[in-house]
Amino acid sequence: MSQNNAKEIIEEFSEPSYDKLLDHEYDGIREYDNPLPGWWKNIFYVSIVFSVGYWFYYHAGGPGMTLQQLHAIEVAEAKADMEKRRGKDFEKKLATEFKTLIGKKEAIAKGKAAYTKNACFACHRADGGGLIGPDLTDDYWVFGPDPLRIYKTISNGGRAGKGMEAWGKKIPPNDIKNIVAFIISLRGTNPKNPKPHGSDETKFPN
For 111-162, what is each residue's pLDDT tens digit? Predict the structure, then answer.
C-alpha cells in the first residue's frame, strides 16, 4: 500500500467528510449529517410495530394482563390464603375461649350492657323475643345456636336480604363475645308474645 493511500484511509476515518455538512449555519456552526446505521433504524421501526401490538394485547381489551393486574391477583390470592389459615386458628382459639366464657355471670352482664348499648333490642327486643329479627330464646335458628356461629353472624352479618349488618366493624370483639354469652343465656326464657319462627329457621333442640 502506498503512502498516499494510507494517508487517504486515515483521513477518511479521522476527519469529517465536508460534503455531508448541511447547508444551514447557526452562530458559525454547521451541522454534520451523520445518519444512524440501517440496522439500528430497522430495530427502531420494528419496536414501533411491536409497541402497537403490545398496546392492543395488554391495554385495549386484549387477553393480556398488565403487571399491575397480575400483582393485584397475586396479592388477593395471598390475602385469601392468609385469611383462610388465620380463620382456622382464630375459630379454634375462639371456640376454646367460649368454653370458659359461656354461663359466666360477669360475661352475661357485660353482654347485656353491650346488647343494650348497640341497640340490638331494636330488632330482637330487650328480652330477645324478636321484632324485625328472629326470636333468640327458642330452639329455631337460621344459622345455629352454638357460640361460634352466633359470633360470626354478629360480626360478619346475616344472610343477604335479612337486614343484619356486619357489626364486627362497629362493635369490639370482646363485646361481641360477651353479647354471645348474653344471647345464649336468653335461650329457653320464654318471653311474652315472642315472634313466630320463620320458614328459613331450623329447629336446634337444646
Answer: 999 999 998 999 999 999 998 889 999 998 988 889 988 988 898 877 655 6
Q: What type of residue is 135?
A: D
Tell me the backbone φ, ψ of residue 47, rounded to 5 degrees. -65, -35
To the nearest 10°, the Cα dihedral for 139, 142, 146, 149? -170
Q: How far apart are CA 194 and CA 41, in angstroms?
A: 85
Alpha carbon distance 77, 198 (integer Å): 38
Q: Three cell numbers at 39?
A: 440496522
Cα separation, 51 vs 45, whole angstroms: 10
Residue 196's Cβ-count burial label (10 Å; 0-12, 13-18, 19+) is exposed
| Set of cell numbers at residue 100 | 370458659
Q: What are phi and psi of 30, to 5 degrees?
A: -110, 140
Phi-psi region of 157 (alpha: psi -120 to 50; beta: other; left: phi over 0): left
- Amino acid, res. 115: Y
Cα separation of 30 and 138, whole Å? 99
Instruction: Residue count of the chain, please give it.
Output: 206
Cell reading at 28? 458559525
